[in-house]
Every structure is written in structure tokens, then in C-alpha cells.
């Protein structure tokens, strides 16, 4: 591995070999301090020193297994990354074909875990290189995704990214760059903190924001531009990072949290209600029951609520409005648990917390949670002997205390306000939301694949529609409209008209030869009647268009059944010419 523009930084760290080892391990491409500065040193004075002795008075040298080259640029590094990226893609493509080998879902997972990390390691380096390298990487990603789905090469690359759920490469790298600067500012990463502070205090921030070229003088310029592009706070000084491991004084067991599937049927919902009532009945009558909940109110703000049921039957309620950046329902649930711990500490009364959020309970009882607010809850629980345990009850099933505290959150009428400092994990979640919002805007403005726009106007939240069978490729081409239909061929200049030729042959009125029309065309009877009858029997109602059959919100089982039926229909009427 070669590092760009490595100068005299080794003179400061050469007496400390562990420091050099850590630097090479954690920040391989940041191995010189001057790379974050003005780079005013003369390259002709480049020498690698070990103490007072020159060990390599040459332009290229190797020290402790690391290559240093004064002529090595970010263009070289980007070129090497692209070669490794393309090599990994070719390796993955050898694992599956059209009807053999790995399925599309497995190929996409391999791409995300094997090929993509070659570019996301040191994500800022591609932005410091000439722009053509980033464009080549984006083109390679889109081409690979189209190959996984067996889409034609003339199809839009953004269509493949939306269908596979893989974000655009430039946005993905921007999000990672934003995460790097947040780790530096919060103190989670201790290397180059001084350089980061010096950069923030200088006037170079304004200069980097107004540059119109892709080659900034330092990676900090890439970080700042990434924060600006994602519409994030430019200097997230309020970010807090948790410590490594919190001390565990006493062990508080996790409550029972079974999978009740209450939304599947009324019987399951009743079973969930009975489970919640049994959990409440297990509480000692001499203990206070603290029902907690947090979430979004009717006014669009986040609230944390506490509802206390005392042993004598009296009740007490408290609602706090949360203010801050990057708030979520999960953060509100954690702060509701914090309110319960504070009430129990002030009153010194034996209490039991009852929450309907499994994620908040797991985070608050974990000594290694990445959220500092949940870590603070864990530490407070260790030092609060009056807090006996935490129980979980299902939400929205009719448990009286949980229903009452949920109404308090929804009403959101409170004058008390709690300022919540943003954490590193919340900031990164905010960066993901910003990425998704920008990606959604790009997809709405995209002119490619009107068929997929009709099926999914906004981005998908999962990849359940890419099931683990080879018919998933056929469904991908049907949903995106990339088939041998007249509309697709005419759109790409391969046919003189977008009208269905079969209708004109049979003397019917002219129709646009789209995928939907192909399944109702008179030339394909009686096969399409049999197919529509099958779909109507499975769905329980008469279908009026193919959109309900190609929908990606159906269960995986229904999608597989419909895909097999569609493939059999295509084989019976077209002899593979349609696909």
C-alpha cells in the first residue's frame, strides 16, 4: 500500500512504534500530518528518518511494511481502487448466470459486502482525485446491478439502484465522509483532532465551500462539502460519544419480549392484550408502576411522558417536550425511561418501569449501547436500588396504563422542555435520512422507467421483492418495463412505433404496446383469461390492471406464486421473444 504525499510526519512518531502501528491500522491514507494542512513543504527535501539516521534517501521507500512515495497522488489511489472494485465485480458475476448459480438477492448482498467496501474505505479519497474516477465508479456500480437483474444495457442505471435498494455511490460516500468528521468532532476518534480544530478555526472553511473544483487541499474540505450537500449542521459540536464499556454493578435481567404478531389477526391481538395484563399482575402490590412512552405528538414535536400508579391507587402524570437536532421516537422512548428513573430516585420508592418499546429497553439495559442517552440510563439503573426491574407490554392492545401514557404523548400539552444533545449515532441516522431524501428527489425527477415509477413513486424500504429464485429477474424486467414490448423498443429507437402490432392484425383498435396491455391483448387469448382468473382467485377480488399483481408490497409467498404464473404464461404465448 502506498500513501500520497508522505513528508516529515514520521520524524515525530518514529520513536513510538505503537503509535505508528495504530496510525497505519486505523488511518492508512492519513499517514501524514501535512496532508491535512497547507502542503507547503518542498518535495525535494523528502527524506524518511528513523531518529537521526536517514533510512531511505530516495523518492520511494518502504518502512515497517508500508510504502511511501512522494510522487504518489490521489489519482493513483483512485485508479487502484477502481481496479480492485472492477475485479471484485467480475468475481461476483462469475457466481451466477441467468438460470444457474447465485440468485439476484445473493449477488446484491455479495456486492454490498465484498465489492463496495473497496471504495468506501477512506471515502474522501475519491473526491480528492479527478472527477472522472468517481464517474467511472458510479458507472461500474450501475452496470453491475443491471447485470444482476438481467436488465438491458440501455436501461437507466438509477432504475437498477432503486430496484435493488443500493444508494447512489456519490451520496453513499458523502454520508460516510459526514460520519468521519462527526467522529473527529465528538472525540470518538482521537487521531488528528488537533488538525481538525485548527482547520475549523481557520478561514479555509469558507474557501473550501466556495471552490468549484473537485481537488481540495485537504480531506477536511471534502468533509465540509459533504455536510453541506446533505444539509447537516456544519459544525456538530454538540455530538457526544459513549465511553467504551460502562461499569456493571448489579445485573438487571431483560424482560420477556415474545413475538406476538398482534397485527396479523384479532386473535393475536387479544393474546397480546392478555400477555400485557399478566405482566402487570406480576408486579408486587407495594411497588409503584411507572408507565413510560415517547413519540411524536399531534403538533409534530417529540414528547416523553410518565404515568405513575401508586400502591394506594393514586396516579401522577408528567409530560416533557424534547428539543434538539436529530430527534426520533427511539430517543423519546429512552428519555421517557430517564424520567421514570429520576422520579424513582427523587421519591426513593420501589418502582417498576413498564414500556412498550423493545429497542429502548434493550438499549437501556446494555452496557455497550452506541447511544450515549441509553448508556446514561444503564449507569443510572446501576446506582438506583429502588428501581426493581423493567417490563415490556405490547402497545395499542388495550392495557390501561400504557393506553393512558400513549394518550399523553399524542396530546403533547406540556410547558416543560428538555434539551437533548445530539449523539453520534443520531447524527449518522440524520445523515441517512438526508441521503434518502436527496435520493428520493432524484428518483422523482428521473425520466427512466415510467412503469417502475407507477409501481413505486417513492423509494422502497426493503428488498423483499427480490426473492431468492431466478424468476426474480423476470419480475424485475416486467416491473421496470424493460421487455421486448413496442413501447420499450420505440423509447430506445429500436421500433418505428409504440403501438401494439397484434391489435392491428386482429382488427382491434390501436393500443400502446406496454407490459400491462400485453396481458389483456386479444392476440394472447385464451391464455390471459386463464391467468386473470388465477390472479382473481388468489387475491379474492377481480383485478382491473396488472399493477396489483406486480405490486412489491405483497407478501413474498404471493410474489413467488404470481412470478411462476407469469413465467408460464410468457412461455406459452411468446416463445421467449417477449423477454
Verbal overview:
It is a single chain. This protein has 579 residues and is α/β, with parallel strands linked by helices. It has 26 helices and eleven strands. The chain has helices at residues 10-13, 17-26, 74-93, 104-115, 117-120, 125-128, 131-149, 157-164, 169-186, 193-201, 204-209, 219-229, 266-281, 329-347, 358-364, 372-382, 400-411, 424-445, 450-455, 471-480, 486-491, 501-505, 515-518, 527-539, 547-550, 556-574; strands at 2-4, 48-50, 53-56, 60-63, 66-69, 288-296, 302-309, 315-323, 351-355, 387-392, 417-419. A six-stranded mixed β-sheet has the order 10-9-6-7-8-11, with helices on both faces. Strands 1-5-4 form a three-stranded mixed β-sheet, with no helix packed on it. 35% of the residues are buried.
Secondary structure: helix percent: 40-55%
Write down the Rg. 30 Å
Main sheet, how many strands, which sense, barrel? 6 strands, mixed
Poorly predicted runs of 5 or more residues: 1-46
Short recap of the structure:
By secondary structure, the protein is an alpha/beta fold. It has helices spanning 10-13, 17-26, 74-93, 104-115, 117-120, 125-128, 131-149, 157-164, 169-186, 193-201, 204-209, 219-229, 266-281, 329-347, 358-364, 372-382, 400-411, 424-445, 450-455, 471-480, 486-491, 501-505, 515-518, 527-539, 547-550, 556-574; strands spanning 2-4, 48-50, 53-56, 60-63, 66-69, 288-296, 302-309, 315-323, 351-355, 387-392, 417-419.
Strand and helix map with partners:
Elements: E1 2-4, H1 10-13, H2 17-26, E2 48-50, E3 53-56, E4 60-63, E5 66-69, H3 74-93, H4 104-115, H5 117-120, H6 125-128, H7 131-149, H8 157-164, H9 169-186, H10 193-201, H11 204-209, H12 219-229, H13 266-281, E6 288-296, E7 302-309, E8 315-323, H14 329-347, E9 351-355, H15 358-364, H16 372-382, E10 387-392, H17 400-411, E11 417-419, H18 424-445, H19 450-455, H20 471-480, H21 486-491, H22 501-505, H23 515-518, H24 527-539, H25 547-550, H26 556-574
Parallel strand pairs: 1-5, 6-9, 8-11, 9-10
Antiparallel strand pairs: 2-3, 4-5, 6-7, 7-8
Amino acid at each position: 500500500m502506498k500513501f500520497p504525499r508522505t513528508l516529515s510526519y514520521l520524524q515525530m512518531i518514529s520513536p513510538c512504534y505503537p503509535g505508528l502501528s495504530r496510525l497505519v491500522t486505523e488511518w492508512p491514507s492519513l499517514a501524514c500530518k501535512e496532508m491535512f494542512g497547507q502542503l507547503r513543504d518542498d518535495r525535494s527535501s523528502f527524506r524518511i528518518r528513523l531518529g537521526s539516521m536517514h533510512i531511505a534517501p530516495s523518492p520511494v521507500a518502504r518502512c515497517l511494511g508500508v510504502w511511501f512515495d512522494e510522487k504518489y497522488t490521489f489519482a493513483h489511489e483512485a485508479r487502484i481502487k477502481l481496479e480492485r472494485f472492477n475485479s471484485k465485480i467480475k468475481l461476483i458475476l462469475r457466481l451466477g448466470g441467468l438460470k444457474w448459480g447465485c440468485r439476484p438477492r445473493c449477488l446484491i448482498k455479495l456486492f454490498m459486502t465484498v465489492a463496495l467496501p473497496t471504495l468506501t474505505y477512506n471515502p474522501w479519497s475519491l473526491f480528492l482525485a479527478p472527477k472522472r474516477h468517481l464517474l467511472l465508479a458510479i458507472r461500474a456500480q450501475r452496470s453491475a446491478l443491471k447485470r444482476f437483474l438481467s436488465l438491458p444495457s440501455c436501461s437507466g442505471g438509477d432504475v437498477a439502484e432503486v430496484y435493488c435498494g443500493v444508494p447512489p455511490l456519490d451520496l453513499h460516500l458523502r454520508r460516510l465522509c459526514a460520519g468521519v468528521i462527526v467522529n473527529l468532532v465528538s472525540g470518538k476518534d482521537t487521531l488528528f483532532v488537533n488538525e481538525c480544530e485548527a482547520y475549523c478555526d481557520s478561514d479555509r472553511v469558507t474557501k473550501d465551500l466556495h471552490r468549484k473544483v473537485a481537488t481540495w487541499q485537504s480531506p477536511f474540505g471534502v468533509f465540509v462539502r459533504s455536510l453541506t450537500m446533505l444539509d447537516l449542521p456544519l459544525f456538530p459540536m454538540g455530538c457526544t460519544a459513549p465511553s467504551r464499556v460502562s461499569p456493571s454493578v448489579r445485573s438487571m435481567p431483560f424482560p420477556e419480549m415474545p413475538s406476538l404478531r398482534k397485527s396479523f389477526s384479532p386473535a393475536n391481538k387479544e393474546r397480546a392484550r392478555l400477555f400485557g395484563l399478566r405482566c402487570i399482575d406480576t408486579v408486587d402490590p407495594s411497588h409503584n408502576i411507572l408507565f413510560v412512552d415517547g413519540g411524536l405528538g399531534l403538533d409534530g414535536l417529540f414528547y416523553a411522558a410518565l404515568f405513575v400508579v401508586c400502591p394506594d391507587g393514586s396516579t401522577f402524570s408528567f409530560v416533557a417536550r424534547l428539543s434538539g437536532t436529530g430527534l426520533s421516537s427511539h430517543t423519546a422512548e429512552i428519555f421517557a425511561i430517564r424520567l421514570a428513573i429520576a422520579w424513582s430516585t427523587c421519591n426513593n420508592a420501589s418502582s417498576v418501569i413498564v414500556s412498550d418499546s423493545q429497542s429502548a429497553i434493550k438499549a437501556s439495559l446494555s452496557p455497550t449501547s452506541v447511544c450515549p442517552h441509553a448508556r446514561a440510563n444503564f449507569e443510572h439503573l446501576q446506582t438506583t436500588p429502588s428501581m426493581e426491574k423493567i417490563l415490556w407490554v405490547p402497545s395499542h392492545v388495550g392495557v390501561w396504563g400504557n393506553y393512558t401514557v400513549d394518550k399523553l404523548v399524542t396530546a403533547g400539552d406540556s410547558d416543560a422542555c428538555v434539551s437533548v444533545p445530539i449523539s453520534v449515532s443520531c447524527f449518522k441516522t440524520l445523515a441517512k435520512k438526508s441521503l434518502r431524501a436527496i435520493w428520493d428527489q432524484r428518483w422523482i425527477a428521473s425520466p427512466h422507467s415510467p412503469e417502475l415509477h407507477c409501481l413505486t413513486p417513492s423509494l422502497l424500504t426493503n428488498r423483499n421483492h427480490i426473492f431468492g429464485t431466478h424468476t426474480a429477474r423476470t419480475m424485475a424486467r416486467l416491473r421496470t418495463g424493460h421487455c421486448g414490448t413496442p413501447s420499450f423498443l420505440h423509447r430506445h429507437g429500436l421500433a418505428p412505433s409504440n403501438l401494439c402490432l397484434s391489435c392491428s392484425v386482429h382488427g382491434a383498435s390501436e393500443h400502446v404496446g406496454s407490459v400491462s396491455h400485453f396481458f389483456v391483448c386479444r392476440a394472447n387469448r385464451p391464455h390471459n383469461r386463464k391467468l386473470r382468473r388465477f390472479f382473481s382467485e388468489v387475491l379474492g377480488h377481480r383485478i382491473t390492471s396488472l399493477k396489483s399483481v406486480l405490486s412489491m408490497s405483497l407478501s413474498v409467498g404471493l410474489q413467488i406464486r404470481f412470478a411462476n404464473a407469469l413465467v408460464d404464461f410468457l412461455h406459452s404465448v411468446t416463445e421467449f421473444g417477449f423477454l
